[in-house]
Each structure stands twice: as C-alpha cells, then as structure tokens.
Design brief:
alpha+beta; 5-stranded mixed sheet; Glutaredoxin; 2 domains; 18 strands
Length: 271
C-alpha cells in the first residue's frame, strides 16, 4: 500500500554498450506514476548480437585496455566488458597508467584501431567517446563510462556519491515508513553513499523546512550528486522539484498513495 510510487521515475540505468545508448528497464508493476509521454527518454536499440553462424571469436581481435579508477565504489567497468563480448572479439588487459589516455571520467575502456573493423560501432564515435594519439602507442578509441559513480579526473574527486536525507516526523505514527524509500533506492542502481534521518521537529529539520519550503513529511532530499544519473531528472519533476542548489526534493506525496503529514494543514493525509 505504501509504495513509493513516484520515485519509480528513478529508472534503473542499464549497462551502456559501445554505442553509448541507455536502455530503460521497466520498473515493478506496483508503480503507479508514469513518466510523461510527450517527452519520452529516447530509446535506441542495441547492436544486434553476432549471428550464430558468425562466431565472435572469428571476428577481428581488438586489443582492449581497461582504464580502472582508484575508486572502490565506482561503476563496475567489467559489466561493460562482459556486455561487449557479445559484439566484439576482445583481448582484454588492464592499463598500467590509465591517466595517459586523458579521459575525464574513469573507469573507461580503450580500443586499438582494430575496432575500425567494426564500422557499425565506430560510426559517430565522437558522440560517445573520443580518439587519442599516444606517442609510441598509436591511436586509441576511448569510451568513458557514462554510469555513476565515477572518478572525475578533471575535478580530482568521485561524482555520483549521493547523500539521501530522510526528513521524517517521529510524532506521526500513521505516516508511511521511509524504509520503503530506502528499499526502493537499493532496488534502483542509485544506492546512496550516505543516508541520514532528520526529524522535522529538530533544529536541523526546521532549517531544512525553511530552506526548501517543505510542506509534507516524510519526504526525501537527495543532494546534487543525484544529477549524475541521467534518467532521474525527467521523471522526478512529476513528484518533486530540483532546487537551485541541485538538490532533489520529493514533494507531491498525494501522488504516492501513502499516509503523510501536511505541515501547513497540520493534519494527517490519507490516500
């Protein structure tokens, strides 16, 4: 009953293959709120797998370097590799110095020029990756991860580590349990780096209420790192707001079919 329906719009980001396309995964049937149909997120088909009569092992062998970040919780680039094995014959190694490839996002993959033997994959390469000429190493096609968390080499820090603040009301026994929100975030691939519980009656809770104009609780505040998950923004505006400081605020609890407390009316609201 107390399903956090609106957060459904945090679509699970599927593995992005070489063409850099995003495949939206349908969320659970319990979801009640859908993204607007007038502005859908583009759906682009992934490359067709190699026909059975043409085994991948018979295709040109592409030397592939994994550019691994020094970041334990960054996106697992091995998922890229395993997906690409259905399309490319790869000889995979780990680069000794990933930084010489000048990628602004790590982890990443780098392919030698044999990748040009796969023209359907290198067409419009500059829209998802780039090429680089290295002294004594030749030309490489670099594919940075588009998934978060990732290491921003330009900023020297990890992006996409989201802090989730659950703004609750301890005095409201009937209000929905924010554990539902926690579980949904675990099911999506947007797993908070930090989680905080703040009661609306506390000093910090009052400050957050004033800062963001909070009118209903329990609610959820995600910091600006949530913007590193590209499928999040289009749907979030149905149930919440994106503030000037980049924070994502869950606001329209009436759309979620849950029991909540209206701070302006000072009353419990039921679906």
């Amino acid at each position: 009953m107390y399903t956090l329906a609106g957060i459904v719009l945090l679509n699970v980001i599927a593995i992005m293959i070489l063409s850099g396309r995003i495949e939206d995964t349908p969320v659970q049937e319990r979801i009640q709120v859908r993204a607007p149909t007038q502005d859908p997120i583009p759906e682009n088909p992934v490359p067709e797998p190699v026909p059975e009569e043409q085994a991948v092992d018979d295709l040109p062998l592409v030397r592939t370097l994994v550019l691994q970040a020094d970041c334990q919780d960054c996106y697992d680039i091995d998922l890229y590799v395993e997906t690409l094995r259905d399309y490319i014959n790869m000889d995979v190694e780990y680069a000794e110095d990933p930084y010489i490839f000048k990628s602004e996002r790590l982890p990443a993959l780098a392919f030698n020029t044999t990748i040009e033997e796969y023209p359907h994959l290198v067409d419009n390469w500059e829209s998802t990756g780039y090429t680089i000429q290295l002294l004594d190493k030749g030309t490489w096609y670099v594919l940075p991860t588009l998934n978060a968390p990732y290491l921003s080499t330009r900023e020297g820090r990890v992006r996409g580590r989201v802090t989730a603040t659950y703004l609750t009301m301890d005095a409201c026994d009937e209000c929905y349990d924010v554990q539902i929100t926690r579980e949904f975030l675990k099911e999506s691939r947007i797993i908070p780096y930090k989680e905080r519980d703040v009661d609306i009656a506390s000093d910090e809770g009052k400050q957050l209420r004033e800062q963001y104009g909070i009118t209903t609780v329990p609610t959820l505040i995600l910091d600006k790192e949530a913007d590193e998950y590209p499928n999040m923004r289009p749907g979030w505006t149905i149930v919440g707001s994106i503030e000037d400081d980049g924070s994502y605020i869950l606001r329209d609890l009436q759309k979620l079919s849950v029991v909540y407390y209206d701070l302006e009316q000072e009353s419990v609201m039921r679906p």
